[in-house]
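Lab notes, practical 5.
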Amino acid sequence: MIALPFGHRQAARPGHAMVLALALMLPGAGASEAAPSDNRAKLWHTCQTNDGEAGLTACMAIINTRGIPKRERATAYYNRCYKFILRHDYSNALANCDRSLEDNPSFVDAWLNRSTIRSGLGQFDLAIKDATQAFAMANSNSDRAGALRNRAAAFVRRGNIAESRADLDQAARLQPGDVYNFINQADFLLQLGRPDEALQQVARARATRATSNFSQQKMYSDIGVLHGKSLVAMKRYSESLPVLGALLKIDPNNAEAFALKSVALARTNNVAAARDALSTARRLPLSSPDAADVFREAEQLVREVDSAMAPPRGEPVAPGATPSRERNNRVALVIGNAAYQNVSPLKNAGRDAEALAAEFDSLGFRKVTLLRDQTREQMFAALRAFAREAETSDWAVIYFAGHGLEMGGINWLAPVDAQLKTDRDVRLEAVSIDELSTAIEGVRGLRLIVLDACRDNPFAPQMRFTNSTRSLGTGLARVEPEGGTMIAYAAKAGQVANDGDDENSPFMKALLNRLKQPGLEISMLFRFVRDDVMAATGRQQEPFVYGSLPSEPFYFRTAATASR
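Output from the prediction step:
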């Protein structure tokens, strides 16, 4: 439980991401000395004790209080950061931790937790810098040891074995006999490919009595991850299953645990359960950068089994010919944001979305989800739901029409409730296009994102910049999606798209027209769309496609389905 904002200091609390130290709020340093009103006291209590949506909302209400002292606001941001870390939602955690440190640069626990987040995102160089800063500012051996352990975990993953070893040894000297000495030793040994020795450290951790300074639930979650990983690495799959089952009772949103379970089940020939465990893992945010490797192994095993068991489908293909794909197992999420609450509404975004959803439906998509005027929370909920649909589909398409912006090379989509009064608000109020990519990463066939969000940015004139290194670009920035993913922009990087003067935008008119054309492979389809839009706008707008697809052709409408 997070500590109250007034009172004595709590000790550092370990997290379960890469076995890194996760600090509690520093109540004295982060709160106002003035006695709060009854309402404010209730908000603080909810902000600190509720790890769900109510807690996040209460913390934001405190942040938005007029005249709130910076150090108190830093604590509220910190509590939001903490809650997002517990969910493995490192993107939102980072945005809130950044704001906490902007308001209170001497907040040791925020530096410590940001190193946790950086490692969770695989940003090991930055994690090392933050852990070093936390160590330099720490006033207790507990915080110093936590910072050293965080830095050691990042060092070993970056290949700095000697530095990692030195930090672990120093942490053990600062806190001799602490259970996390054994936990972090196990993590270190696993990274070196020595699971048998790691298992010995896990046993020592389980035999060590936990102190009251740590959350035992998180401690046992950390131990469970390392225990399961060690057994799977040693090919003791049957033994790993009850260990992973116990872990998931403690931490039911741990994607790495589900992926490990999928591997163990596949290796013990329980293929259906392995597929279910992998399906669950795909719906969850990565709990650690190490999880990606486990995912790959699990997915490869399931693919191999599926390939061996799959019956032949479709008509026979002539020798040397490449099979084409236009499958009915296709899903689409179509979002049109037009009724913006804090800037001028858009004329065609909603109509464009409706027209495209209708066209996808006529093309025989298995499911088309059309959503209008979504808030940020609604967009995230929609993406989570769509991820579950997409993972069992051959095609997954996401279309977004609305306002978008590029800041510092990152592209963001604006929900209808966005205010974006400062540059710092972008991370808290907008949705990164990386979230769209994540929602469809489990698809085995075509992954397509279409962004009609390159219009003039209406938030720019009102946005106050707090960091001179940040800047807004025109339109959206170019992207480099992973193989098998295609991202189509209504206007190429740096350009602005035309919203149109009549029922649909020039981009949507061209896209709808080409979707009706049978026998047009998807890459060629978007090339035709480009030419159509260039002609319609006097060469002022050039649609552009980023990413790459495999050699297999994909068709929205083959010649055989031209009558649809």
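Observations recorded by the TA: The two ends are 58 Å apart (CA to CA). The first helix runs from residue 27 to 30.
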